[in-house]
Write a structure and sequence with these properties.
The protein starts with a strand and ends in a 24-residue tail after the last helix. The chain is 25% helix and 15% strand. Strand 3, helix 2 and strand 4 form a beta-alpha-beta unit. The chain has one domain: Glycerol-3-phosphate (1)-acyltransferase. It is α/β, with parallel strands linked by helices. The chain has a 7-stranded mixed sheet, sandwiched between helices. The radius of gyration is 17 Å and the shape is globular. Keywords: Acyltransferase, Transferase. InterPro entries: Plipid/glycerol_acylTrfase. One of its GO terms (cellular component) is plasma membrane. One of its GO terms (biological process) is phosphatidic acid biosynthetic process.
Length: 247
């Protein structure tokens, strides 16, 4: 597959020792491109991924062998403890705090687990935004025949940006820290989305681009019908407002 991965800000990822990262999520292969970008710092990232991936034949052994972490969204304590142990061993851990792909391509509700890990371990959170991989393979709203499906068009560009580490003190309020993370991730993601090479052409039907920036993906309100969000996720006060359903 002819895809160019562009990484920036990767100097924020330490060359050695534990690292805790939080990444936006807009496509199935996001972890592949983030992992590739981290290799520029000679780091092999252990990703926190949905537990049902381990149910796919032939995948379980590979995921376990690479020390990725299965996350049961309804009972995430085991994943938290595994991530804490790997951090203590000096590993680089990356989670997707949205706990799923955002149908709106805006940063959706966030889980507080990564801020809790940062507060307990004393590690800062390294925010990461990724954009471009949604053109390759992402979720499609079931009732939208024009939604984005797998597309192996050659010459795609995927941008991965590492932001400045966010310090989390031991007395940090988790809701406030999670909210701050949401604002940071939103700013980083929109900076990528607004780059000319990532914008749709004039008149193009673009279900792969956020509605609040001129695309045709579901807006925040429409996405609520598709998003599966854990009950303990923090609702967004960051990013675009939820449109009023009234005409």
């Amino acid at each position: 597959m002819d895809v160019t991965t562009r990484a920036s800000g990767h100097e924020h990822l330490p060359l050695h020792g534990p690292a805790l990262m939080a990444c936006t999520h807009s496509s199935y292969p996001d972890f592949l491109f983030v992992g590739k970008a981290a290799l520029r710092r000679a780091r092999y990232v252990r990703f926190m991924c949905r537990a049902d991936i381990w149910d796919v034949p032939g995948v379980r052994r590979a995921m376990t062998g690479m020390q990725h972490i299965p996350v049961d969204r309804q009972a995430p304590a085991a994943a938290y403890l595994t991530a804490r142990r790997l951090l203590a061993q000096g590993e680089a851990i990356c989670g997707f705090p949205e706990a799923g792909i955002s149908f709106s391509y805006a940063v959706r509700s966030l889980m507080p687990g990564l801020p809790a890990l940062a507060r307990e371990t004393g590690l800062p959170i390294i925010p990461i935004a990724i954009w471009g991989a949604q053109r390759i393979w992402t979720l499609t709203p079931e009732n939208d025949a024009k939604g984005p499906g797998p597309d192996l068009t050659r010459g795609r560009v995927v941008d991965v940006t590492f932001g400045a580490p966010i310090a989390v003190p031991p007395d940090a309020d988790l809701a406030e820290t999670t909210t701050a993370l949401g604002h940071v991730l939103t700013g980083m993601l929109e900076e990528l989305q607004l780059r000319p090479e990532h914008r749709p052409a004039p008149g193009e039907h673009a279900p792969w681009y956020p509605a609040h920036l001129g695309g045709h993906a579901p807006d925040r309100r429409e996405a609520l019908a598709y998003d599966s969000v854990p009950h303990n996720a923090l609702a967004p006060t960051w990013g675009p407002p939820t449109p009023d359903p009234r005409p």
